[in-house]
Amino acid sequence: MRVDHRPPYNGHYLQGVSCPNVSLCVAVDDSGNVVTSINPIGGTTAWTVTNIGPNDFTGVSCPSVGLCVAVDNNDQAITSSDPTVGAGAWEATHIGSGQSGVSCPSVSLCVAIDEIGDVATSTNPTGGPAAWKLIHVDAFGSPLGLSCPSVNLCVVVDHSGNVVTSTNPTGSAVDWTVTHVDSSPDGALQRVSCPSNGLCVAVDGAGNVVTSTNPTGGPAAWKVTNVGAGDAVSCPTIVLCVSVGGAGIVVTSTNPTGGPAAWRVTHVDNSEGYNFLNGVSCPSSGFCVAVDGNGNVVATNNPTGGAAAWTVTNVDSSNSLNAISCPFANLCVAVDGNGRLVTSSNPTGGAATWTVTSVDGAGSLSSVSCPSSHLCVAVDDGGNVVTSTNPTGGASAWTVTKVDTDSYLTGVSCPSINFCVAVDANSGTVVISSMPSGGPAAWTSTDVGSSPLYVSCPTVTFCAAVDFLGAVVTSKNPTGGKAAWKRIQMSGINYVFGVSCASSSLCVAVNGEPAANDAPAGVIPPASSTLVSSSNPTGSAAAWVPANVAGTNLVHGISCPSVSFCVAVDNAGNVITSIEPTGGNRAWTVTNVDGRNALTAVSCPIITFCIAVDGIGNVIIGSGQP
């Protein structure tokens, strides 16, 4: 679920939207997300983002609340009979080459188009591959849009200015007729909408609407009119058409065949400059929803009412959540790179149960540790600790304290409310406090002869930190000064991306590749990622055993709630689990849970509950027995 959607962000490219009525809208994006709402004008919290998988969606059609069909560039139709209940309600079916659009006039007919002139039809869209039939219908251009107002008419438009029509869509190729209707420069027909068999309106790349009251009547039955139209169009009735496109415009008409004077251009989406509106769906003349390339939905109850009648809401944005800590199943706190904390006392309750809090004075937050519901400590890139004894209490409940001048705190671990250890890779220190919310004087820096990036302290008497150079620095007396810390160079390991210690008898580090500009001079990133585990963390280098379990993927985080269970996450949306963490490659299992999104961190307060976060603001929850 998307829980962090405050600017600055780079939203996903919403490709299409379909609203079978005013109480359901379903949009799709280029990152495998479906974005649904049963209250489309209810603001951000009324929309739910669900990742279906590594799909580059190109279109969606919902003929009723009981059927939605999306298509993607991976040759698939992805269907659901209950589109708002989560990823498990969607099923992918291979139907042909890369699909570019879909139209379902009823639950018993769906027609999809691909990029090489094929249509795929089905009278049972959820019936699997055998229920779809592929027909080659357009040898002249690449189909870009289609509309089927009924089971007796489908109209496809293509890149060459052709319309391809059929009154028997499930028939053979001879039942489809290609007609050239648009010879204007840049006359590639982008989309088409037919509210009835007696009206079709297409739009092209030159700002034209191409209209017909007799779509199968040949070239003379189509009229090209320049009105400044966009690249998408929806006509809920014969007396309303709405086109959307570049510069955040909507172009509306209550008389679509009435010539240029019958169309009105309005700028409605200038939330971040003028956004490019990619799709629009109008289930009635009193309701329209458009989507843009920055994750916004733009909705109205009065499509012809001018700019003030349209509302822009961001529903699918992309803040990177960097770390998360869950002391219990009823409290989780995540942090992002823009000084915000994302908290929930009901982590499985959906996006509405998460609160985003900006803390004045906080920099880019890199790590967080919550030993209880009465203390959370985050650290940032400005040498600050950000503490709260009431983590869900809003901005005023958090205090920013400078404890490490001109340094970058990259990790923190608090095994109890009376003991926290932060690490600073720039100065090679650990910064320790027995009273974390006690202000600057309560924190003491100790040089440990390393450049620690991440730290894990399962108890107040044992800590392990790891660094860029593949070393682990351990201590059985963390407050005992430099002499109490021991540095071990792990064999063959040169960049460690995280560490979790369930106890002093189990630590697991992840050896992953840094971003190109993150690695210090002289550090050569590894070709692949490795988990490095030890049942004797304070022993020699030989006590640390590597296991390559992620292939070429990069492991970004690790959490071990016990010595018999660990969960790691990687940059390909996988969780990597083991009930025998020191057992080598065979002991680890890789499972994809987040499509192609990069998972950045994971926290497991108990072996039956884990939450991971990713680079686009999602939390991914796992529960049940390992």
The CATH architecture of the largest domain is 7 Propeller
| Low-confidence sequence ranges | 1-10, 514-527
Q: Give the % helix.
A: under 10%
Q: Name the CATH homologous superfamily of the largest domain.
A: YVTN repeat-like/Quinoprotein amine dehydrogenase
By DSSP, the count of extended strands is 55
Number of domains: 2
Q: Would you state the CATH class of the largest domain?
A: Mainly Beta
Mean pLDDT figure: 85
Written overview of the protein:
With 626 residues, this protein is an all-beta fold. It contains no helices and 55 strands. Strands 1-2-3-4 form a four-stranded antiparallel beta sheet, with no helix packed on it. Strands 5-6-7-8 form a four-stranded antiparallel beta sheet, with no helix packed on it. Strand 14 and strand 15 form a beta hairpin. It starts with 13 loop residues before the first strand and ends with a strand. The N terminus is likely disordered.
What is the gist of this entry?
With 626 residues, this protein is mainly β. It is elongated.
Topology at a glance:
Elements lengths: L13 E8 L2 E6 L3 E5 L9 E5 L5 E8 L2 E6 L3 E5 L10 E4 L4 E8 L2 E6 L3 E5 L10 E4 L6 E8 L2 E6 L3 E5 L10 E4 L8 E8 L2 E6 L3 E5 L10 E4 L5 E6 L2 E6 L3 E5 L9 E5 L9 E8 L2 E6 L3 E5 L9 E5 L6 E8 L2 E6 L3 E5 L10 E4 L6 E8 L2 E6 L3 E5 L10 E4 L6 E8 L2 E6 L4 E5 L9 E5 L4 E8 L2 E6 L3 E5 L10 E4 L6 E8 L2 E6 L18 E5 L10 E3 L7 E8 L2 E6 L3 E5 L10 E4 L6 E8 L2 E6 L4 E5 L3
Antiparallel strand pairs: 1-2, 2-3, 3-4, 5-6, 6-7, 7-8, 9-10, 10-11, 11-12, 13-14, 14-15, 15-16, 17-18, 18-19, 19-20, 21-22, 22-23, 23-24, 25-26, 26-27, 27-28, 29-30, 30-31, 31-32, 33-34, 34-35, 35-36, 37-38, 38-39, 39-40, 41-42, 42-43, 43-44, 45-46, 46-47, 47-48, 49-50, 50-51, 51-52, 53-54, ...
